[in-house]
Amino acid sequence: MALEIEKWEIWHTYTTFLESTFVDLETTARLLVSSGVAECAMLSNGRTHWRSGGTLGSGLTVIDLDPLSGAATFTLKLDDGCNEMPEGFALEGWGQASHFRICARRVLDEDYCGLPRPYLRAFLGKYVLTHMANGGTQAQTQLYPILIIYESGILLVEFRMIGPDTVTPLAEFIEDYVNLFRHRFDIVEVTPGLSAFATRACYQSNYTGSIIDRIRLAWLQAGHDIAVREQTRTHKDSAFTFELAPLSGSEGNDLKEIALTVFYTVAFIVSSPKLGLSSFCRDSAVHLRSVSSGQVDRTFILFVFVISVIEYLKMRNVMGQILDG
């Protein structure tokens, strides 16, 4: 009898670092959300930013952890002028980020040892990767990427894959899911924010042309933004609704190349870039190499985390009981 797996998750994780030893996490979280690259971002100190239905919000996530029982609750205090709580996937991201912070508090006394270093965790929505199989049929892979940025400049992107409700044969589990990093894809759909800002990160970070050429490039970027909006589609799954747009130049990409795109886009956003024509007024506002945080090392480490048989949430509850005990 062939082995089968009922419930599983895999987290394909890539990591790199910026040359900068300090990242302004609050500003970066706000820019990640306002640019549309992320749906929700939470700092390790509880500062939270999100977008729901085109509306931006911010507040402070407060965790109350009982040191004796280990029981924990979390609440969101809205900033002045913010009247809407996160909704949809932003609400889901806020809840998951809060649970990660609770687990960290249970394991590490943040006030005492200062570990881990200050960081932010951002939920990047949903990516859909399509491979055109023989005969014209499509095989799609759905990922829920999570970005972690440490104040020291360390970056991680975790491509979370959730198994189907049906059982998965072991051979298929290994070949199609564990070995996903070996596959190449014909179409990569990401959030419209990443699709738009990835081209900015590519061209504005390294462009050294004349002011006329830079203005022309800004005009072309505006046309690209229009094309992204026109090609954006609504994607619904069993729980949430997402907006997806094709990632330019992604034909034949694998997971590492998608991670590289995310990292370079994040490095661009970390530098707090100017947008539109104002971004081409001065050389110092264009070249990321004039800002040390804009330099990304090309060394990658790939981790594959496999959670099989039991659901992630069930495992998290078990681990919580172990830690509490």
Structure description:
The chain is of the alpha+beta class. Helices cover 33% and strands 30% of the residues. It contains eight helices and 15 strands. The protein has helices at 25-34, 88-107, 110-113, 170-178, 192-204, 211-231, 255-270, 312-324; strands at residues 4-5, 8-17, 40-43, 47-52, 55-65, 72-78, 119-123, 127-132, 138-150, 154-162, 168-169, 187-190, 233-236, 241-246, 301-308. Strands 2, 3, 4, 5, 6, 7, 8, 9, 10, 12, 13, 14 and 15 form a 13-stranded antiparallel sheet that branches. The protein has a two-stranded antiparallel ribbon with strand order 1-11. A hairpin with a 6-residue loop joins strand 5 and strand 6 (72-78). Helix 5 packs antiparallel against helix 6 and helix 5 (192-204) crosses helix 7 (255-270). Mean pLDDT is 79; it is low at 281-299 and 307-325.
